[in-house]
TrEMBL record:
Residues 202-290 form the GerMN domain. It comes from the Bacteria. This is Lipoprotein. It holds the Pfam family Gmad1. Keywords: Lipoprotein, Signal. Residues 1-20 form the signal peptide.
Length: 576
């Protein structure tokens, strides 16, 4: 806890120094009255050429101030009065080109057209979520020399483009929490808010809580506020440092829902404030006799989706399942050779095992209690991907309720436990995912709201939307499409970060947030490419399998070390 408080204090200090206009919004907005740029925004340096004007306009578009004031100073008077950029941002690579367009020259020496070319990395959508994009970026800017001799842009684009570096400097990523009834857990929805002013961070985060989940997560989680709840006044800090939040519209919400609403707000705010939170509903305590809140006082809603520390993980080796803890075979046919195991997965609670068995020239799914005979399921094909477990909430806790796999690289299938104890097939509408190509790996998030997949060697995430009679995959998105290729395996390190292994010698293992906004490579030291497997889990060492065996590392900068029971040809997996 001390380490968390220290890190947050450092962030707040840094955020307080960022050069961002006062009272900015979580997304770029045009403002109701564009008008002239505010007097406190300095004019560009005198005498700069059209190329420099254009580049500086782009670099200053990242500052999310009222009416995009920092960028507006590069426009002529008419454009300053009339320009209304659309909400959202396009994020481009830091390296982009600006050249004069000779083909559209008017012959007027006081006019120039500048072409800007680069690569799109993504967009910041109007709901403040990052959407990865792989595309070329091109835009024309027309500039005219003003009576005072300075070059200014006369036709600014409605779509603002900013560099990746400037976006990172001006925006702060916040995991907004939303509740998943299926797993009984809170699910992070990565969103971006202006990093300064520091005092306004809680208010901007609270705005996103009230807006509900982003488009990519809608339907996969419950919006506890339902679009009906608002705040009566601005989020404010009192003299004693308490954050006051006064809700209205909560109405007849049950005590259970009121506690969940409180948890959602406090969890969403914990990355931007150290203060205690006072939660009111129409002037009285949101939760009776519990007016003040801290994140440390909340129940651990996610306890059932995190593997117990005593569950050390398993591995498949030469057709058998063994323990990562001592290297010994597990009990039953899965460990003693009774099944020819191709791959396997242990449930999050550790009690059950699903294996893909090879027999009669086909691959079949078996599921049952760990250490016992596993029932053969009527699910088979030429190939089945390694199984993955989805928790289902029962009696308030997550249990091992479903097993998913991919049949022949193109059919996403799941089996559920029926009332009579049999594991039976159930449908998944995976059209949006299968339309992207061949699926070789599939991993469900341990909170059950999302999945990560390897499709045609690329990393893809999608949300899982469940209704009373259907399950569908929605909003599939390719992560780091331009730079992350030849992916062979993936796992969830946390609820909002993935670890991926590739067959590349230069980029064998990487860490990627679930929105793909960045990518961080692990060290390649000691690894013998190609890496063919990876597993990860909260508060666990990252574990990879290469040509030489099993290797562990806890942090990005660490050198990989041999796992205690390393063996060649092993495929490791943590519960989930």
């Amino acid at each position: 806890m001390k380490r968390l408080l220290s890190l947050l204090a450092v962030f707040l200090l840094v955020a307080g120094c960022a050069n961002i206009p006062l009272e900015s919004q979580p997304v770029v907005v045009s403002g109701d009255k564009p008008g002239q740029a505010p007097a406190d925004v300095p004019e560009p340096a005198a005498g700069i050429d059209p190329l420099t004007v254009t580049r500086q306009f782009i670099r200053n578009s990242a500052a999310p101030g009222t009416a995009s004031a920092a960028a507006r100073v590069y426009l002529d008077d008419d454009a300053r009065r009339n320009w209304k950029p659309s909400p959202g941002l396009t994020i481009i690579d830091d390296t982009f080109g600006t050249v004069y367009d000779t083909s559209s020259s008017s012959g007027n020496p006081d006019e120039q057209v500048v072409n800007v070319r680069g690569f799109k990395l993504g967009t910041l959508s109007p709901d403040s979520a990052f959407l990865p994009v792989k595309a070329e970026y091109s835009q024309q800017f027309k500039l005219r020399k003003q009576p005072n001799g300075q070059w200014r842009i006369v036709d600014p684009p409605q779509e603002l483009a900013v560099t990746d570096e400037d976006f990172a400097l001006n925006y702060f990523r916040v995991p907004i929490s939303f509740y998943s009834p299926d797993s009984g857990a809170f699910v992070p929805d990565l969103r971006y808010v202006a990093a300064k002013p520091q005092a306004g961070l809680p208010g901007r985060v609270m705005d996103l809580v009230l807006q509900g989940p982003s488009e990519g997560l809608k339907g996969a989680v419950k919006d506890l506020l339902g679009g009906q709840v608002t705040i009566e006044s601005n989020v404010r800090s009192t003299d004693d440092g308490t954050l006051d939040i006064n809700l209205t519209g909560v109405g007849g919400a049950s005590l259970v829902d009121r506690n969940l609403i409180a948890a959602q707000i406090v969890l969403s705010l914990q990355t931007v404030t150290l203060s205690r939170v006072r939660l009111l509903a129409d002037g009285t305590a949101l939760v009776p006799e519990h007016e003040y809140w801290r994140s440390s006082e909340l129940p651990n809603y996610n306890v059932d989706i995190a593997p117990n520390s005593e569950l050390l993980g398993l591995m498949t080796v030469n057709g058998r399942v063994r323990s990562l803890g001592d290297g010994q075979p597990v009990g039953g046919p899965a460990g003693n050779g009774g099944y020819k195991v191709v791959s396997a997965a242990q449930s999050v609670d550790g009690k059950r095992l699903a294996v893909v068995e090879e027999r009669d020239g086909r691959q079949w799914l078996r599921v049952g209690d760990l250490g016992h005979d596993l029932a053969s399921v009527d699910l088979f094909g030429g190939s089945l991907s390694r199984p993955t477990w989805r928790p289902v909430a029962r009696g308030g806790g997550g249990v091992s309720g479903e097993v998913w796999t991919v049949v022949d690289h193109n059919t996403v299938a799941r089996v559920t436990l029926a009332a009579d104890g049999r594991w039976v097939k159930a449908g998944v509408d995976a059209t949006m995912l299968t339309g992207l190509g061949q699926i070789t790996e599939l991993r469900l998030s341990r909170d059950g709201s999302r999945l990560a997949a390897v499709v045609n060697g690329q990393l893809v995430v999608a949300s899982i939307v469940r209704t009373a009679d259907s399950v569908a995959l929605r909003a599939p998105r390719k992560l780091q499409e331009r730079d992350l290729k030849d992916v062979v395996d993936v796992d969830w390190a946390t609820q909002d970060h993935l670890i991926a292994a590739t067959s590349s010698t230069s980029l064998p293992v990487v860490k990627v947030p679930l929105d793909g906004q960045r990518m961080d490579p692990f060290s390649g030291s000691n690894l013998t490419p190609p890496v063919h497997g990876v597993t990860a889990a909260p508060s666990r060492q990252n574990l990879v399998a290469d040509a030489g065996g099993l290797w562990v590392a806890s942090e990005l900068g660490e050198v990989w070390r041999p796992q205690a029971h390393t063996v060649t040809n092993a495929d490791p997996f943590y519960p989930g």
